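Re: weekly structure request thread

Next one in the queue (365 aa):
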Amino acid sequence: MDKKRKKILFIIPNLGGGGSERVLVTLLANIDRVKFEPILLVVKKEGRYKDDIPKDIEVIDLNASQLRYAIFKIVKSIKSIKPDIVYSTLGHLNLVIAMIRPFFSKQIAFVARESNTVSSHNQQERYPKLFDWLFRKVYNNLDLIINQSKYMKNDLIKNYYIDENKIKVIYNPVDFKKIEESIDADNKILFDKDKINLLCVGKLAYEKGYDILIEAVAKLDDNFFITILGEGGEEESLKKLAKERGVSQKINFIGFVQNPYSYMSQADMLLLPSRYEGLPNVILEAQACGKPAITFDAPGGMREIIEDGFNGFLVTPFNTDEFAQKIQKASNHDFNSIDIKEDCRKKYSVKKIIREYEDILEKVN
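Done, posted below.
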C-alpha cells in the first residue's frame, strides 16, 4: 500500500516581488509530489510572481485587501482542507497563524518560515514593544519555525525565549538553471565598460540603507557608477539626497526589472547597505553570477555567507568611510568568479535546499 501523501497548505499574504515570495515559488515548483500534496492559499493573489505558480498547484485566493479581513477565512479554509501541515511565511501572517494555532488539533503541524531578523524588524513597527510582546507570547505555539540563518535563530532564542528545539535553519535556495537561462536570454550591453560598475538590487525602503549608500558613494571618485534595481516608497527622498550630495550623475535608479541577473553578470560587484536582513537572496544570486558583494556586518546572516577576500567584504555597521574604502579595495582585488559560483552552488543549490525542506516537513508530525 502506497504511503499517503502529506497535504501541505502554504499560506502567504501575496505574491509580490520579494525574497520570501521567490523562495515559496521555488519550493512549490520543486517539492516532491510523490511525498507531498501542496496547496496554496493567498490572502490576495497579486504581485510579480502570481504567474509563476506551477499549473498543478491548487490556488485559493481569499481576495482580501488586508490580512485582518482574511483571518476568519484562513481559519475556515484550514478546517475545510484538513491539511497535515500549515506552512506560513512573512512576519504579520506568522503571528496570526501562531495565535490561531491553539484552536486546531495537534495532528496538524503549524510551520512558519521567518523572513527577517525579528528584533530588528520589530523596531520599524508602529508599536515595537507590542510586537515584541506578541512574539514572546504566541510564537512558541508554533510546532516548527524555519529560519534562514543562524543569526535569526539565535535572535529568536535570546530575545523571544523560543524553544530551541522548535527552530531549524535552512538557507535560501538559488535556482542556477533559471539564473543561467535568464543571463543567456539577454545579451545586451548594460553598463559603460569604462566605469567600475556597482549594482544594488532591492526595494527602496528604510531598512535597505540606500541613504547610507549615497553617503558612501559621495566619497568615491567618478570612476565608479552605481545602478539601483528596485522600487519603493523611498525613491523620491533618495533621489533628493543624491542631488544634495552631488552624486546624481553617478547613480541610476532603474526601478523593478524582471531579469536582474543580466545586470549581476555584467556588474563588477554587488553592494548591500542594509540595516538588517534575514539572509539576503540578492547576495546569493550575485554569487551564482560569480560576483563579490560588499555589505555591512549588520544584524542578519551576512557573516554566514560572506568570506572576506573570497566572495566579498564585510564592513563595520554603518561606517560610510569604510564602506567606500572596501568598494575601492574590491575594485582592485582579484576575485575568482568560477570559485565563487561553485562555492555558491555547493551550499545553496535548489536540489540541496529543497531536500532539507522535505526532510523537515516529513518529520514534523
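The chain has a mean pLDDT of 95. The first strand starts at residue 6 and ends at 12.
Next request, please.
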